[in-house]
Design brief:
The chain is 29% helix and 20% strand. It has 307 residues and is of the alpha/beta class. A 7-stranded mixed beta sheet has the order 7-6-5-8-9-11-10, with helices on both faces. A two-stranded antiparallel ribbon has the order 1-2. The protein has helices at 3-13, 19-29, 34-38, 59-70, 96-99, 132-140, 156-165, 226-229, 245-257, 273-281; strands spanning 40-43, 46-49, 104-105, 118-119, 121-126, 144-150, 173-177, 208-213, 258-267, 285-291, 297-304. Residues 74-118 and 193-201 have low confidence and may be disordered. The protein contains 10 helices and 11 strands.
């Protein structure tokens, strides 16, 4: 019995062979990814269900999301701590004293806000797919309001399931369907505040303290393994002739949606990471290229230049 068959037997069928198991073995033999056959993929201790067949989360993504969340986990978020302590030198240049002015009310869509709840960070999982990144943020960042931006409405129910089945705090989650930042633009939600309140709760294009994105970044003419090309969604894989069509649009829109002292982590194709970097530099950002666990340049860490 090959490894994937053994994993399938143990995880989906509790070690008991059956006609259904034999049918699933045939799916594996035809090249269907194990995650789709089992129905879920592990991701930072979570079970990420794949009911709507989103892109399967990769180990490289899991690795850098862990780096991102580890930079924050264990760090107090409350603005009542000593103001001069550095919040997180690996992520932000601002100090906790500035968080006093960066509290965000938590609420459902359209930012309708219960006044008795405060979240101090806004986290966006952009190009969310299964919602694996945002679910990891919900699990590891108890002080954050987590937004999911996804273009395919079929994946909304999958994200909801992943929040529910992993016993995450759904009250801190907000799923919005649309093209990149479109659901977070001022034209797509109404300001819930009165004119007297707007000075305290400004309305406009929604901004985020942390943006984590695993966008499509594969050049259209690149040949992929059949297990990927024949089964995973092309929309989540390919991005034009150079693989940068979506990243180019993210770079252009990012100045309106990244908070002044925020940071964006963007996964890129290792062969195009320097070209992707130039797109963000052209928008006035500082960028850092980071490698994945295999030593390949994989992630751009983007923030506003601190002059």
């Amino acid at each position: 019995m090959i490894r994937d068959e053994q994993w399938l037997l143990n995880e989906k069928y509790a070690g008991k062979e059956s006609a259904e198991y034999e049918a699933d073995k045939k799916r594996l033999a035809k090249g269907e990814p194990l995650g789709y056959v089992i129905g879920w993929q592990p991701f930072l201790g979570l079970k990420i269900y794949l009911d709507s067949k989103p892109l399967i989360p990769r180990p490289e993504t899991e690795w850098w999301v862990e780096q991102l969340t580890n930079a924050i986990s264990g760090t107090p978020y409350r603005a009542t701590v000593q103001a001069e302590e550095t919040f997180s030198a690996t992520l932000f240049s601002y100090k906790r004293s500035e968080l006093e002015n960066k509290k965000y009310s938590c609420g459902a869509k359209n930012d309708s806000v219960p006044r008795n709840r405060i979240c101090e960070l806004r986290f966006l999982d952009l190009c969310a797919g299964s919602g694996a990144i945002g679910c990891a943020a919900l699990a590891r960042m108890p002080g954050a309001q987590v937004y999911f931006g996804e273009i395919d409405p079929a994946h909304e129910a999958t994200i909801q399931k992943n929040i529910r089945e992993n016993n995450l705090d759904a009250s801190r989650a907000d799923i919005r369907i649309g093209d990149l930042f479109e659901p977070f633009s001022a034209t797509n939600f109404s300001c819930p505040y009165s004119n007297l309140e707007k000075w305290k709760y400004p309305c406009g294009d929604m901004q985020f303290d942390i943006i984590a994105a695993n966008p499509p970044y594969i050049p259209i003419d690149r040949e992929l393994p059949a297990s990927v090309a024949d089964h995973e969604p092309a929309r989540a894989l390919f991005a034009g002739d150079d693989g940068l069509d979506v990243i180019r649009r993210i770079a252009t829109a990012l100045p309106k949606h990244l908070a002044e002292n925020g940071v964006a982590w963007v996964e890129c194709d290792s062969s195009k990471v320097e070209e992707a970097q130039k797109l963000f530099v052209a928008q006035g950002f500082s960028t850092e290229i980071r490698t994945d666990q295999y030593g390949k340049p994989r992630i751009l860490v983007v923030s506003f230049s601190q002059c």
